Every structure is written in C-alpha cells, then in structure tokens.
Amino acid sequence: MAADKAATAATIDFGDFLKVDIRAGTVTDVQPFPEARKPAYKLWVDFGPEIGTRKSSAQLTGLYTPETLIGRKVAAVVNFPPRQVGPFMSEILVLGFPDADGNVVLISPTHEVPNGGRLF
To answer: What is the pTM of this model?
Structure first.
C-alpha cells in the first residue's frame, strides 16, 4: 500500500498494534545528509534514560530547517530493526503525514510529555 493512497491497510488485532513501540522524544541534533537519494537530514532524538538517544534519516527538508527541528518533540517507532540508509544507520522511524504537496508534517504531542513516553 502506498502512503499516498486513500485505501486503508488490512485489519489487525490490538495485539499487533501493541507490538509497535511508538515513543515521544526530543530532537537534540540535526545534520545535513547530502549522500541521501532524496533531500534528508540526519536526526538524533533523545527518548530519555530508558531508551537513550537514537538516530534517524528523515526527509523533512521541505518544511523544516535544522533550527526549527532542534528541541522539537516528535513521535517515532523505536523497535524496528536498524536500517542502512546510504552511509548512515537509521535506528528509528520518525512519524509524520504528507501535506498536499507531499512534504512530511511531523507528528507532535499537543502538550508536554516526557521523553520516552509511549503512545497508547
């Protein structure tokens, strides 16, 4: 299923949902990623003492600058296996929705939550 399709995915049970570990974290560092095939940043996200800081490659250059990302609270899947993205090892999947132009709009809590807080 492509992300831009209106169709929904197959039905899953609640146990399947619980397997996906989505946590809140704070972006602590952003670096350019010129080696990426599509414009992207390298992100470092702090998930608190239990999980620590993890890194990700994210295609966020359409709407965000490094300065607007530092300190931003994001949601990310923290239990996918690491994935090699060019010369960079991505450890998490930062979550967002596409806007009308296909740019990623990050998911963020509307109120302050602690780093490492789990989505339920």
So the answer is: 0.90
